[in-house]
Structure formats: structure tokens, C-alpha cells
Specification:
The complex is a heterodimer of chains A (about 500) and B (about 230). By secondary structure, chain A is an all-alpha fold. Chain A has a domain of about 230 residues: MetI-like (MetI-like fold, Orthogonal Bundle). Helices cover about 80% and strands about 0% of the residues of chain A. Chain A is built from 22 helices and no strands. In chain A, helix 2 runs antiparallel to helix 9 and helix 5 runs parallel beside helix 21. Chain A is globular, with a radius of gyration of 23 Å. Chain A starts with a helix and ends in a 5-residue tail after the last helix. With about 230 residues, chain B is of the alpha/beta class. In chain B, strands 1, 2, 3, 4, 5, 6, 7, 8, 9, 10 and 11 form an eleven-stranded mixed β-sheet that branches. In chain B, strand 1 and strand 2 form a beta hairpin. Classes of the chains: A mainly alpha (about 500), B alpha/beta (about 230). Chains A and B meet through helix 17 and helix 18 of A and strand 6 of B. Chain A: It is found in: Cell membrane.
């Protein structure tokens, strides 16, 4: 029953999102016909799918014992560990890569320990490094999704299991295995989709014939080979991969999900004996695995914060200038779509998941260069692409609350005739303040840390902070890279915490 | 006069028909088994449910096409009649001017009405700080401010105990007398109907009404009403 101008807003958002993504796709498809797929391109496709599959599988398998231990044990610091596991999702990928290098790289902690005991060095560069970094980034996400799965086992069943005296084996067979059978496919596919568009990880730890992703090939085709038809063809291939994976996700789970950890009263039985130290080991290893790269960035970066040249601070300023408006656009667009009663709104909001940074980037490059110079486009294009790509996350945060608002107060709002601006200001914004703050935090943090389309367009004067970190790492200026990576992560997390806190503050029940 | 002219509401394979009129200023109860369509009929009058056939007419004006906020209607729902993030006074302000802040004079009027329903000095509270009865009073106060000629009650006091409910019904009667409103009330309890309403509409088996004299209806109930009452 929305009337007047209000009903046109979701349409306008849909038109803009659709235009950015579909116009880029059309450009990509239009130009891609002139190139043919080479053996190296096929290798990139195989590696992209392979590393995504291995990363998703490893992340999920490793997450199972951790999630189970966190579910059935209660100990001091448990909440803090669950919160820490939420960090890698918002961590700028390039900062994560720096941390991983600091631990597992040529002169990292691991190899120094190996050297001390006379073991051969572990090389981080190549497929194993790409997978390691992806698992670092996504295993915590898998744990959080599985915590939700465990929390979804009805309390009645757990009580029944207790009453019947189920041992750990019986709990596994009758409760945990069936639950994982429904949760694992969704978790694995969500991570698979994320890893398919892996660019920053492949750019820094991969490369070469056996560790190049399609996203990386697109970048190389544009920046190094100036071969636009090839880039367009690769972008079309990448879109095909993502769309297929997304369709698969939809078929398997109904909707791609990104969960948050929950708590509730009923606990599954906590077995004694060797399983106690076993659980402690699982949580301890996960903690070390997730925290050590973060600590490494912090430890090394802090000492060199004062050495940072002014260009880094200028780049940080540019990153903020992109991230804030991009977050506002993504959140506002997601809000309009989440409030829309139309069923197509969900499809529009999820559309960006099928595209990737470099695919849209290639499309916009083809459409806009010429007449424009790439460097002049870097900031506006990055802002727009980040807004489009982070919109699904904001939508996911807002949609359930928007539906609840309509169910609880939709009729009252209409009965009183509260409409237009007053409805937004007096009802929607205050009622949705919590998810709005969260959505702003997530979109700003993701946009702040994004290293994707900016790499296609940036010149010396338009580089963002993530790109500067990557360049410093490429130049082996590791001290400065550490400090810059730390600043980047600090900016992203402070933005997230500030907006999330704003949402929670005075959020009425 | 409220006229339901050949009204037909179809939801899936379920249909409800009503074809009668209600004189201005009377109070009418809607009773009948769960799922019979009492609330649906009320939602059709309020403009939330589109009739498949027929018209809802108030004082000669067909209400079709009017949005709920523009109808000559105030409605109290079963729950969630107040926005929890707004104070009681702000919630009442929405009854006077939904799309702007109330003026000084209007704020005085809000305080007056709060006093009138027994909530004097509670304007600054949030709904969570009110008891169930107080929340009902606040919602009625807003209806008093809105001054719409039709007052629809969709079991807003169902969760209250008998004594408190009787108190609220008396307040409804006072509000209706003051504003001259025509009242339509959904209820499960014949006692509620007897207490407040001159007329009662029995809703069952896809048909609503016509209105009958409440006292006469319960003194000598027809077969279907007997079955519903368990007599």
C-alpha cells in the first residue's frame, strides 16, 4: 500500500544497482568476443575453482571441532574468542595477508622455528600460500556459521539426549551429523563464492602459471598487457563462475547466509575424559591460528607508525573519503530494498554477489576509458563499485528487521497515516537503528579494506591505503607495510565499532 | 450510517459475506468462533483488506480507494498499538499530526487527554514502562485525540483480567459518548458485548450479521449462537 514517491525509491535503487552491474556485464560480453581462451586462461579457471574448493573444504572441516568445543564448553574468555572469530571477515584482506606473511613467510616466525630445528623452509608463495590465507580469512566465518547450526538444535532434543544418556557417539550420530548435513553445504558454498573472487590474496601470494586466479588474470590483462578484449573475456568467464556458484548456493540452501554467533540456555552434553583436552586443543589452536597474524601486524606495525611517509596518510584520507559515502550509499540502497514489499527487491539486492570487483571494474573501464583517464576515475569508480558489492551484506542485516517492523507496526503506521519523511525519521530510522548501525559499520569497513577495482584504475595520486600497503609489500618495505597495514585495520575496525555502537546506543526495545 | 453493501471478502478458498447497515453512534460487537472472519471484516472497514465485491459506505461516501490513514476510522489492534521507541506523549501526538511535531497548543491538549484517561503525568514514559491497562488507556487517549467517527476495537483488551477489561470497556463507552463515535468491537466474550454494545453481529460459516439486539440475542440465542456459546 506504499504510495506516491516512496514507492519509486526502491525502483530507483534497483535501476542504479542493475545499471552499474548489467551495463558492466554488457560491456564485458560485448568486448569479450574478440579474444579466445588460451591455455593459461584455462589454468587460471582451474586454479580459481580448485583453490576456492580446497579453501572452503579446509575452512569447514577445521571449523567443526572448534565450533563444537565452543558450543559445549563454557569458560572465561569464550565470548571474547567468538568475537575475535568475527574479526577476519572485516579485516582488510591485505592486512590479513601481511599478518600471514609475518607468521608463515620466508623470514616469518614459522620458518625461523623450522630453521632452528633443522627443518626445510616452508614456502608461502604459490597455491599453498593462497589456500592458507583464504583459510585464515574464512575458517572463523565457518565457525560462526556452525555455532548458529549448533544453536539451532532444539533444546528439547538436547534434553532428550541427556535423559536417554547419549554418549558422544550417539550425540554425533543423532544430533550433530544431521545438523551439519544441513549447515555445511551452505557454509562451504558461501566461502567458495568468497574465494572465487579472490584477488588481493592471489596478487600477493600467488601469481605465476600455477597460482593465478581469474580476477588476477583480468588485472594483469588490463594493467600489464593492455589487452582489453582478453580482460573482457576473462571477466565474462569470472561472471559465469560466480553466477553458477551463486545459483548452486540458492538451490542448496535457499539463500546465501552470513550468520552471527548466538547464545542460549540449553547446552549439549560436555563429555569428560580425553575429549576435554581435545576441545581445549581445538580452541587453543584456532586461537593461535587466528590471533597470531593479527598480533604480528600489531607488534611490528606499532613501532613504525611514526615512520610512515605523508603519502600513506593521504592514501588513508582517500580511503576514508571512499568508504564513508560508499557505506552510506550501500546502506541507504539496502534499506530501500529491504523496506520494499516487492519480491524482486531480494533478487536485486543479491545481484551484486554474482559480480566481482574486477568484473564490474573491467566493464566500467571499457565503458569509460576513453573519454576519461583511469586515474581520474579511480576514486568515483571504486566508491560506486564498493557500494554495489557491499549492498548485499547491508541488505542481509536489514531485511529481517525490516520485515519484523512491517509485521509489528506496519498497520499501526498506516492506520495513523504516518507517511513519507515523517515515517522515515520517526518510525523507520529509530526502529531500525541497530541493524542500520551494524550495516553501516560492515559496509564502511569492507569498503575501507577493499583491494580490488582500485588496482585497475589507480595512479600515483589516487591510490587508496590497501593499495599502498600492497605496493609497500611488493617493494619489500616491510616495516612501513606493517605500520600501514595496522593503520588500515585500525581505520576499518574503528569505523565498524563506531557505527555499531551508534546503532546499539539508545536502541529501544 | 455505516453500510456494508453486498460486501464479499475472499482470501484463497475462504469467503466472508456481509450486507447490512449500522446507525450512527451505536456500539456493535462482533462475536463468533476463531477464524470466522471477525478481524478480517474489521480490517476491511479500516482499509487493510480489499473486498472482492461490494462496498463499505460511511455517511453516503464509498470508502474504496481511501488509504487506512485517510478513512474516518480509529482502530485499536490486539497488541502493538504504541510505538515502543516513542514516549506516550509522542505516541499521542501521532494521533493529531502524524507527519509533524505537535504545536504548543496540541501538546496541552495531549496532556489534557492523558489526564482524562487517568494517565496524568505519564506523557514522558515509554510504553515499556506502562502496565497492560495503562497501554490500553494510552491507545484510547489517542483515539480520543483523533476524533474519527468510527472506532474499531480488535480485541485490544484480550490480555487483561476481567476487572481491568470491564474498566477499559467503560472507558471506551465514555470515549465513544464524548466523540459520538460509532463503535465496532471484536470479542470472544458475551459479557463484553453485553457490557458495551447495543447490537451484536454473529460471524460464522462465511456470513456476518445482520446486527441483532444484544440483550435479545443472548436471551434467546439461535442454534448457531448456542453452539458457539456451548449451551
Amino acid at each position: 500500500m506504499a504510495r506516491g514517491a516512496g514507492a519509486l525509491i526502491p525502483l530507483a535503487v534497483a535501476a542504479v544497482v542493475g545499471l552499474v552491474i548489467l551495463a558492466s556485464l554488457a560491456a564485458v560480453l560485448g568486448h569479450g568476443g574478440a579474444a579466445s581462451v588460451s591455455a593459461a586462461d584455462w589454468a587460471a579457471v582451474r586454479f580459481t575453482v580448485g583453490q576456492a574448493a580446497v579453501s572452503a573444504a579446509l575452512s569447514c572441516v577445521l571449523a567443526i571441532p572448534v565450533a563444537r568445543a565452543l558450543t559445549r564448553r563454557r569458560f572465561a574468555g569464550r565470548q571474547a574468542i567468538i568475537a575475535l572469530l568475527g574479526a577476519p571477515f572485516l579485516l582488510p584482506v591485505i592486512t590479513a595477508v601481511f599478518g600471514v606473511v609475518a607468521i608463515y613467510g620466508r623470514s616469518g616466525v614459522l620458518n625461523r622455528a623450522f630453521e632452528a630445528v633443522g627443518l626445510p623452509a616452508f614456502s608461502l608463495y604459490g597455491p599453498q600460500g593462497v589456500v592458507l590465507a583464504q583459510v585464515f580469512l574464512n575458517m572463523p566465518l565457518a565457525v560462526r556459521m556452525m555455532l548458529n547450526g549448533w544453536a539451532a538444535i532444539p533444546a528439547e532434543r538436547l534434553r532428550l539426549a541427556g535423559a536417554l544418556g547419549f554418549g558422544p557417539g550417539a550425540v554425533w550420530r543423532h544430533l550433530e551429523k544431521p545438523m551439519l548435513a544441513t549447515v555445511l553445504p551452505g557454509a562451504a558454498l558461501a566461502i567458495f563464492v568468497i574465494c572465487l573472487t579472490s584477488f588481493a590474496v592471489a596478487l600477493t601470494l600467488g601469481g605465476g602459471p600455477d597460482a593465478t586466479t581469474v580476477e588476477l588474470s583480468i588485472y594483469q590483462a588490463i594493467r600489464y598487457e593492455f589487452d582489453l578484449p582478453k580482460a573482457a573475456l576473462l571477466a565474462a568467464v569470472q561472471f559465469g563462475l560466480c553466477a553458477a556458484a551463486l545459483a548452486l548456493t540458492w538451490a542448496a540452501t535457499g539463500a546465501p547466509g552470513f550468520g552471527a554467533g548466538l547464545d542460549r540456555a540449553a547446552l549439549p552434553p560436555a563429555p569428560r575424559g580425553w575429549r576435554r583436552p581435545g576441545d581445549a586443543l581445538a580452541v587453543g589452536l584456532a586461537l593461535v591460528f587466528v590471533a597470531s597474524p593479527l598480533v604480528a601486524v600489531l607488534g611490528r606495525g606499532l613501532w613504525h607508525l611514526t615512520d610512515l611517509p605523508p603519502q600513506i596518510w593521504q592514501a588513508a584520507g582517500r580511503s576514508i573519503l571512499i568508504a564513508l559515502p560508499s557505506g552510506v550509499l550501500a546502506t541507504a540502497g539496502a534499506l530501500a530494498l529491504a523496506l520494499a514489499p516487492n519480491r524482486w527487491a531480494e533478487g536485486v539486492a543479491m545481484l551484486p554477489l554474482a559480480a566481482s570487483s574486477l568484473v564490474i571494474g573491467t566493464g566500467l573501464f571499457l565503458l569509460l576509458v576513453p573519454p576519461f583517464r583511469p586515474g581520474a576515475l579511480a576514486l568515483p569508480v571504486t566508491l560506486a563499485v564498493n557500494a554495489a558489492l557491499t549492498l548485499p551484506f547491508a541488505y542481509r542485516a536489514l531485511r529481517p528487521e525490516a520485515l519484523a517492523l512491517r509485521a509489528d507496526y506496519g498497520r499501526l503506521t498506516e492506520a495513523l497515516g504516518i507517511a513519507g519523511w515523517a515515517r522515515l525519521r520517526r518510525i523507520i530510522l529509530p526502529r531500525l537503528r541497530r541493524p542500520l548501525g551494524f550495516a553501516m559499520g560492515v559496509t564502511v569497513a569492507l569498503s575501507m579494506g577493499d583491494l580490488g577495482v582500485i588496482a585497475l584504475f589507480a595512479d600515483e595520486r589516487s591510490a587508496t591505503l590497501p593499495l599502498m600497503v600492497q605496493r609497500l609489500m611488493g617493494a619489500y618495505r616491510m616495516d612501513q607495510a606493517a605500520a600501514a597495514a595496522l593503520v588500515l585495520a585500525g581505520l576499518g575496525f574503528s569505523a565498524f565499532l563506531a557505527f555499531d555502537l551508534w546503532g546499539r546506543r539508545n536502541a529501544d526495545a | 450510517m455505516l453500510t456494508l453493501d453486498g460486501l464479499e471478502i475472499t482470501l484463497g478458498d475462504w469467503t466472508l459475506r456481509a450486507d447490512w447497515s449500522l446507525p450512527t453512534g451505536v456500539r456493535c460487537a462482533l462475536i463468533g468462533p476463531s477464524g470466522a472472519g471477525k478481524s478480517t471484516l474489521m480490517l476491511a472497514v479500516a482499509g487493510f483488506v480489499e473486498p472482492t465485491r461490494g462496498r463499505v459506505i460511511w455517511q453516503g461516501q464509498d470508502l474504496a480507494g481511501l488509504s487506512p490513514g485517510d478513512r474516518p476510522v480509529s482502530i485499536l489492534f490486539q497488541d502493538q498499538n504504541l510505538f515502543p521507541h516513542l514516549t506516550v506523549a509522542e505516541n499521542l501526538g501521532l494521533g493529531i499530526a502524524p507527519n509533524r511535531r505537535p504545536t504548543r497548543a496540541e501538546q496541552d491538549r495531549i496532556a489534557e487527554v492523558l489526564d482524562r484517561v487517568g494517565l496524568a503525568g505519564m506523557g514522558a514514559r515509554k510504553p515499556a514502562q506502562l502496565s497492560g491497562g495503562q497501554a490500553g488507556r494510552a491507545a484510547l487517549a489517542r483515539a480520543l485525540l483523533r476524533q474519527r467517527p468510527l472506532l474499531l476495537l480488535d480485541e485490544p483488551f484480550a490480555a487483561l483480567g476481567p476487572a481491568l477489561r470491564a474498566e477499559m470497556l467503560d472507558l471506551v463507552a465514555e470515549v465513544a459518548d464524548e466523540t459520538g463515535a460509532t463503535v465496532l468491537m471484536v470479542t470472544h466474550d458475551p459479557a463484553d458485548a453485553r457490557r458495551l454494545c447495543d447490537l451484536t453481529v454473529f460471524v460464522d460459516e462465511g456470513r456476518a450479521g445482520p446486527p441483532a439486539d444484544t440483550a435479545a440475542l443472548f436471551a434467546d440465542p439461535p442454534l448457531a449462537v448456542r453452539a458457539y456459546l456451548g449451551l
